[in-house]
């Protein structure tokens, strides 16, 4: 049936992760009903108790409202019931890096596609791939479902609809998208196109924002966007490090280059390297798929390698600042002097580091591929004692990242002051706003040496040095 308004449409989401949950919750504001399905029983039971498993501004209130009004339903079984009732079924499961080779692991996507095929009712259902998948996947999913459906009364289409939400502002991004890309709908008045147009009509105010493309273009757009962002970060990091060698300030440089509207201000912030659940895995998957066509993406290969090297160097630089002999070294000099070696020359055995921030960026609780986790692991491997505070991280959520470090001196603390108690070096690894407003006099009293490494350039150098700290940041001169 042709649906006229979003409020006539029933939707199911396979996967209640960052993408599936945020999309379900936001669509439930407008759709007739949204089923949010996940095989993780614990996650679903927490959601039914209105416990939101991820930290995302605005999510909790919307979830509560839509769940209580029964427009949003959480299921960990009986998925067939949801599929039968849905006009549109989204696949939003994870596509992590396959161990060892960098390829996207499509096993979750294919497994969901197979089970959907078996559940499809008579009549028409639209299947939408929202997960980030390599070019060619939609076509494979269509073949797979076609091969598995039993009845000739089952009709379906597969379209690609990659997600561009940013963790930390995911709800806002979903409600006000820069663009919505829909791949593989075919001609203007096809049922799939009409359904997708109707579904997104409450969010897309301007026709230019809704882009209809082929499957392959949609899949490529998602990877190309993430690869571009990763490149911009790596580019800024390289310029920042060179700035330090020539006594220039990266903040001044990026402010000026960003004013060129061909460049823009976004993603020109230097830091400890890019991380998170998307950029590293997506850029690796893109490069890996190109290799299958005997095509080398040299720029992107170098971005991946540069980022790995950077995370290690940042860890070594932080480690080196625990020693008086290295205290004059800013990151630029450090990198310059250490470009051939992978091990720090400084002995930090037993030295205490206070780490502020563990998530890959602020306003999220996601620790996946966070550069901060890498830095802490490096410090622990070198024998340091490490105390960490992150406003969204509890001790139980870090265990799996430090499984190889059981018995190592790692503490997850409840506040910045406890984490920095007796620290030789304080390192800011995530740009949480609350770190701007710390009581520096109190910190000055609790630490054992007065050294701050701000890998996010969050603080005002002169304010911190006035408080009696040696202040190091990225791409700016050190302040003593
Ligand atoms: P996630 O790991 O947070 O969530 C995936 C969920 O799928 C998990 O809860 C898992 O239990 C569930 N799942 C696995 N198999 C299932 C099955 N057979 N049936 C039902 N549920 C199942 O992942 P995410 O971060 O939401 O990412 C999902 C996809 O979206 C990935 O491809 C990712 O690259 C892409 N993406 C993520 C973001 C982001 O910011 N996190 C942004 C854009 C795109």
Describe this structure in words.
The protein has 18 helices and 14 strands. By secondary structure, the protein is α/β, with parallel strands linked by helices. The chain folds into two domains: 208 residues, Rossmann fold (3-Layer(aba) Sandwich); 267 residues, NAD(P)-binding Rossmann-like Domain (Rossmann fold, 3-Layer(aba) Sandwich). The strands form three sheets. A six-stranded parallel sheet has the order 3-2-1-4-5-6, with helices on both faces. It has a six-stranded parallel sheet with strand order 11-10-9-12-13-14. It has a two-stranded parallel sheet with strand order 7-8. The longest helix has 31 residues. Bound molecules: nicotinamide-adenine-dinucleotide (NAD). The site of nicotinamide-adenine-dinucleotide has 26 residues, from helix 1 and helix 5.
